[in-house]
């Protein structure tokens, strides 16, 4: 029997009383099961953190000694138990080390997605599907009007100009994906990487990921080379260099409102779009769908009288 209160939304995050742990808590807790290392899912200071190895490395890089009291690392598909809840991690395809969290209690399986994507990405483990009684899915782009374009066609837009480009992207996950895509699909470009992004790139390489060709940012190189340079920077730098001259400004994101005023629009998302969510539901075959991280209203309407959809937001 599916337990309606197996996961309860709180101000701290999703709490599982049956296992006495939180999923991706927003405040420090004793036991935190972390799906991936982005800052809105993995904060510092939790006493026990249960995650994949890559997630721990990214958290340690970001938070240093405050990353966690103790890490408990598990390979994909390895099972562990918190109280009476059996847990395992399944590749989520979002960033390196990202995981769907399978939880089983009294014979019922609950699958929490964290953030996930279905588009191909050679810089992280591809998503795997598993059947579950309840799918707890993110709904960041759960809108029938949202369809992410082909990522290779988007990257090839950069070949339309020889001008130097300031490319804004999130430092973890998106940046590494972009470096590899540009290296493969825009080979004439020289990629200069901001120093704050480099430690994450090095962890990717440490974990065996081929990152392609890139260089550490050098102001003189950028200044003296007038064409075919791409300066990859995190969002804060991108916003602060609003008056940068002699560059085309581009920000890689799936959000349309963040593309305003950019001279070239690069729609690249590391989340599922509407069609991908529907496909995931077909593969997981849940009896119920619980939604989080976004609005699930349109999913609830779409599956009306077919599958129970509960909004956890």
From TrEMBL:
For this protein, the record's InterPro entries field holds:
MBL (IPR050698), RibonucZ/Hydroxyglut_hydro (IPR036866)
Transferase found in the keyword field: no
UniProt source species: Pedobacter cryoconitis
Q: Which GO terms describe its molecular function?
A: exonuclease activity; RNA endonuclease activity
> What span is annotated as the signal peptide, if there is one?
none
Q: Does the keyword Glycosyltransferase apply?
A: no
Q: Which SUPFAM superfamilies match?
A: Metallo-hydrolase/oxidoreductase
Q: Which of UniProt's keywords are assigned here?
A: Exonuclease, Hydrolase, Nuclease
Q: What's the protein name?
A: Exonuclease
